[in-house]
Amino acid sequence: MAVDPRPPEELDPKLSATSEGAGKTAPEAGILGRVIERIGYVFAAAIVLAAIILVFEIFMRYALNKPTLWVHETSIFLCAVSFVYGGLFCASRNSHIRVVLIYDALSPAWRRRFDIVIYLISAGAATFFAWAAWLMVKQAFWTPSGSFRMEGTGTAWNPPTPALIKGFLFLVLIGLALQFLVLAVNHARRHRRGDNRTA
Question: Could you tell me if 57 and 67 are in contact, meaning their C-beta atoms sit under 8 angstroms apart?
């Protein structure tokens, strides 16, 4: 049986379109997407740091019999903020999970229309979730009487990481809503240029 020596993307144009943007910011994400991409390296480093301090905890606990109070909660915090940022990072790269049953059956012109609608709906959803996150932030940063108090974990160390994670989630959701709006606007511009070419 003969094997075609051409790369898979030459055999199937869909593979080329999918792999073309893999590993880099989507052009339609604009300047905001490039900033999000750069900041992403900080959160990638946070995952590595979490792994390092977990190894440190293993050494302290089992080699020196002096377990720490801070490693477990710090590693959870570092991983949590990295995972939260991951959604924004994926949106800037246009690499989030999609259900493409209908999308793949559409013509390129209709796909561009669907892209605009999908990004506008996503921006609305992110705005709604940002509002819901703000309700959590208010409870995490202020007491019912209005005085400032950051919510802690309630453990012996009691860091304010629950409040920090909720505040960070709120900021990321605002960034996500803005990124989806940028994607919608830039897809609309591309769609208009595409219509002009085919007219």
Answer: yes
CA distance to 7, 63, 84, 198, per residue, from 159 (Å):
52, 26, 19, 59
What is the number of other CB atoms lying within 10 angstroms of the CB of residue 12? 11
Q: How far apart are CA 2 and CA 5, in angstroms?
A: 9
Neighbouring residues of 81: CB distance < 8 A, sequence distance ≥ 6? 43, 46, 164, 165, 168
CA distances from 13 to 9, 20, 24, 110, 114 (A): 6, 10, 19, 17, 19
In this predicted structure, the answer to whether residue 32 has a pLDDT above a threshold of 60 is yes
Question: Please, are residues 119 and 185 in contact by the beta-carbon 8 Å criterion?
Answer: no
Number of H helices, E strands in the chain: 6, 0
SS3 148: strand
What pTM was estimated for this model as a whole? 0.82
CB-neighbour burial class of residue 118 (10 A; exposed 0-12, middle 13-18, buried 19+): middle
pLDDT of 186 reads: 93
